[in-house]
UniProtKB/TrEMBL annotation:
Keywords: Cell outer membrane, Membrane. Residues 557-677 form the OmpA-like domain. The keyword Lipoprotein does not apply. It is found in: Cell outer membrane. The keyword Membrane applies. This is OmpA family protein. PANTHER family: LIPOPROTEIN YIAD-RELATED, STATOR ELEMENT OF FLAGELLAR MOTOR COMPLEX. It comes from the Bacteria. InterPro entries: 6-blade_b-propeller_TolB-like, Bact_OuterMem_StrucFunc, OMP_bac, OmpA-like, OmpA-like_sf, TPR-like_helical_dom_sf, WD40. Pfam families: OmpA, PD40.
């Protein structure tokens, strides 16, 4: 996505780096914005001698061209001082970039370490655990949207779709066959223009995609735009022109400014630069309020909170404009806020990389409440991904477009249908405690209800009708209950975005005592040959070995293991079988009672297939087992390690594959070692 808005913010990334030597060929490409060629020559320079300035610039080159693995490599070299100069200092922005690329690559936990460092260098505080909780909450939330890639995308970058009547207008750098057409050095693609295509009710194209004529499009960039409600006024971001000539700032950069044109008699008039544009800064991504009285936009003008902020200007009755007003610290961050859109309800949708997200730019929404915008909410998947997701807008109450480069380096347009409630709402939930066998209410049940951070939200002793109600936000909770003559029980509760949900916790009765009283702990001590000294020497180990509830814990060669029924997998598969889910559910329940236990999950395959294939298969099986316990059993993933051993440790050796299906089945297994408690 970045390349499609960076014609707007190119100056941000051309860092002023002091060189002890003259400009190299790589430097000249870099300063022209040709990052692909610059990276090639910086690689050659770094292979000979690793200068800090070269490391900085090659990291920017790969960052700006979406090669995040390579960008992460050089950013790590930079922040760890792996360059020749004695001065190991570096600009704090590189901590932020490393956080972004690591998150985009899926390692957001490590990325948050650098985001924390970035914040601390600005005298701000970030609680990593809280940040992880926030990210995991919107990663795992029930999706509120269904999305689909539209058919009028091209192999080039397409983004910024807006529907007006039966036509969709959008921005693209596709080849429009202009004679002697120039290309943009950053992308090596044509400059951005605005296109239009007619569509039917299914968003299929009707006829050809056409580039809009002059005066709307020019030889340089035309970017994001918006129409007035009647479709006869167009606000557009474009390269800064004055009297038909490009205008440059003090750094010799051509900024982006906002222009306006009106349509009269079916023809668009000349583009008029809006009066609040100031040379030296960029103004972009226009969006009108539903009543047409405010124009929102993104700008890096002086006095903001950081890189690019969201602003608005009032549009007066006489057509003049007020002064730009910053939307404030609730919306804006020290990083980038772009692509505003205001819904018919007055809610603000925008893209940001400064609020916690999944990686690069994410789509957010801020609810209009009490004449102010609320704290932004990350819209989650599927409208967000680890890559750039942006430019979300609605053309009806529940339908609209957004853009993303999640599938490749170039941007694509996606349509969406909203099918959930995007704002936090409380939902009615009913809880019951019943007998496992008879399904009757359990009288006098003592219940406790917890949120995902183990805060007690409700505690009470119920009467003969074991029912209580609560209004709850969507999320994960836990209900615990106990009663006389019943085993204590717990229920993991998932509250979804709908009304009238019911959750039932079934308690099992304690069976009558056996005819001969036998102390179960003493029986286990005898059976397992446990030295009673262990109770004083290692009371937790003694407790686990003598625990009679749930899967037993046994000792083998000095190590502790959960003794479970085998977790089997079908041949060539790594999905958890139905017969094994009950086994893992029981394990999850026991792990809940021992929150300090850390596991190592070992997965093994049979000997069919190559050694390499079996190794990969076993790793996937181990990961699938860990994921089931984390997502379905609500066991904290940080308590579990996993490792695949392939075919290297069979229970039944199978030379020349001379094993029965049953013997192969025995070899396809998982083991659960307790590595810390």
């Amino acid at each position: 996505m970045i390349k499609n808005i960076t014609f707007i913010i190119l100056a941000l990334f051309v860092m002023k780096v002091s060189y002890g030597q003259g400009k190299t060929r790589a430097d000249r490409f870099f300063e022209k914005g040709d990052y692909r060629n610059a990276a090639k020559y910086y690689e050659e320079s770094i292979a000979k001698e690793r200068h800090k300035s070269d490391v900085e610039r090659i990291a920017i080159c790969y960052y700006n061209t979406f090669q995040y693995k390579k960008a992460a490599r050089y950013l790590k070299l930079l922040v760890n001082g792996r360059f020749g100069e004695k001065d190991k200092g570096y600009d704090n922005i590189y901590n932020f970039k490393l956080y972004q690329v690591l998150s985009a690559l899926g390692d957001y936990e490590t990325g948050l370490d650098y985001f924390k460092r970035y914040k601390e260098n600005m005298s701000e505080v970030l609680d990593k655990n809280d940040a992880i909780d926030i990210i995991e909450t919107f990663k795992l939330k029930t999706p509120d949207y269904k999305v689909k890639k539209v058919r009028f995308n091209s192999e080039a970058s397409d983004f910024g779709a807006v529907k007006v009547g039966d036509s969709v207008f959008f921005t693209s750098d596709r080849d429009n066959k202009q004679l002697f057409g120039k290309t943009y050095k950053w992308t090596h693609q044509p400059f951005l223009d605005i296109y239009a295509v007619k569509v039917d009710a299914k968003m299929d194209t009707v006829g050809a995609v056409n580039v809009l004529p002059k005066p709307i499009n020019s030889k340089l960039h035309e970017g994001n735009f918006c129409f007035s409600k009647d479709g006869n006024t167009l606000y557009v971001s474009r390269s800064n022109f004055t009297n038909g000539k490009k205008e440059f700032n003090a750094q010799s950069n051509n900024n982006i400014h906002l222009y306006k044109t009106t349509r009269t008699g079916g023809k668009w008039g000349a583009l008029e630069k809006l009066p609040f544009n100031v040379n030296g800064f960029s103004y972009q991504h226009p969006a009108l309020s539903p009543d047409g009285k405010r124009l929102y936009f993104s700008s890096d003008m002086e006095g903001g909170f950081g890189s690019f902020d969201l602003y608005y200007v009032n549009i007066n009755v006489d057509g003049t404009y007020g002064d730009p007003v910053n939307l404030g610290a609730t919306i804006n961050t020290p990083n980038r806020e772009h692509f505003p859109f205001v819904s018919q309800q007055g809610h603000l949708f925008f893209a940001s990389n400064g609020h916690l997200g999944l990686g690069m730019l994410d789509n957010f929404v801020s609810e209009w409440v009490g004449n102010a915008f609320s704290v932004p909410i990350n819209l989650g998947v599927p409208v967000n991904s680890p890559y750039d997701d942006f430019n979300l807008n609605y053309y009806s109450e529940t339908e609209g477009f957004f853009s993303s480069n999640r599938k490749r380096a170039n941007d694509d347009i996606y349509s969406f249908t909203q099918n959930g409630e995007i704002f936090l709402r409380e939902y009615i939930n009913t809880f019951e405690v019943r007998d496992f066998e008879t399904k009757a209410y359990v009288p006098n049940a003592q219940v406790s209800f917890f949120d995902r951070k183990d805060n007690v939200l409700y505690s009470n002793t119920l009467d003969s009708i074991a029912v209580f109600n609560m209004n709850l936000l969507a999320g994960n909770y836990q209900l615990k209950a106990k009663a006389e003559n019943y085993f204590p029980g717990s229920l993991q509760v998932v509250v979804v975005e709908e009304q009238d949900q019911k959750h039932v916790l079934y308690l099992k009765k304690v069976p009558p005592p056996p005819p001969v009283e036998v102390d179960p702990v003493e029986a286990i001590i005898v059976k397992k040959k446990i030295d009673k000294k262990l109770e004083k020497e290692d009371p937790k180990r003694f407790e686990m070995l003598t625990d009679v509830e749930g899967p037993p814990i046994v000792e083998k060669e000095g190590k502790l293991f959960f003794e479970l029924e085998p977790i089997y997998f079908d041949f060539d598969m790594w999905s958890i079988r139905a017969d094994s889910k009950k086994v893992l559910d029981a394990l999850a329940a026991k792990l809940e009672r021992y929150p300090n236990i850390h596991l190592k999950i070992s997965a093994h395959t049979d000997s069919r297939g190559t050694v390499r294939y079996n190794q990969i298969l076993s790793e996937r099986r181990a990961e699938a087992t860990r994921n089931y316990l984390a997502l379905e059993g609500y066991v904290n993933a940080r308590r579990m390690k996993f490792q695949g051993y392939g075919e290297l440790q069979p229970i039944v050796p199978c030379p020349m594959l001379d094993c029965t299906d049953e013997e192969h089945q025995l070899n396809r297994r998982s083991e659960f070692e307790i590595i810390a408690y």
